[in-house]
Known about the structure:
Elements: H1 2-26, E1 33-34, E2 43-44, E3 47-50, H2 54-67, E4 71-74, E5 90-93, E6 100-104, E7 109-112, H3 118-122
Parallel strand pairs: 3-5, 4-5
Antiparallel strand pairs: 1-2, 6-7
Amino acid sequence: MKKKLLAFALCIGAYAALFAYSVHSDQKTDTSEMTDVSRLMPVKIKQTVKGQEGETLIDTVKEANRKNIKISIAGAQHSMGGHTYYEDGIVLDMTGYNKILSFDQEKKTIRVQSGATWNDIRNT
Ligand SMILES: Cc1cc2nc3c(=O)[nH]c(=O)nc-3n(C[C@H](O)[C@H](O)[C@H](O)COP(=O)(O)OP(=O)(O)OC[C@H]3O[C@@H](n4cnc5c(N)ncnc54)[C@H](O)[C@@H]3O)c2cc1C
């Protein structure tokens, strides 16, 4: 009887340990996975490149073209549906490409790099 109880306790212990591990591992963020704010369709990507300089972006596009790798572009990643990213593609993270190039208060015009958000503009 004692042996049966011990085996039962061992099974419960093993199950609890596996359950705790699975819950914990679900919370890990896989950096090679990309998703948008909806988290509906995570996609395994090859690499993320944060473009702060135009040259980085140009080089990345050229290299991807040479290697026949698809590129997707990410801004604040606030779109929904998960359709933006290509599997095994390169993601160009544009959030660092956000300089304010010129601002004319009189003409009410502003030129910005294409990763600029309203927040970047408001903080100018
Ligand atoms: C809670 C919530 C509320 C929202 N409210 C509104 C609202 O009130 N009004 C409204 O209009 N929208 C709203 N949206 C929608 C959201 O603002 C748009 O989906 C917008 O495109 C998100 O911009 P993003 O920079 O996050 O783009 P991302 O999600 O990163 O990308 C969206 C698309 O734009 C492309 N892209 C991104 N950056 C660039 C770039 N620099 N150059 C070229 N292509 C680029 C991407 O490839 C992708 O196809 C809301 C979304 C959420 C989740």
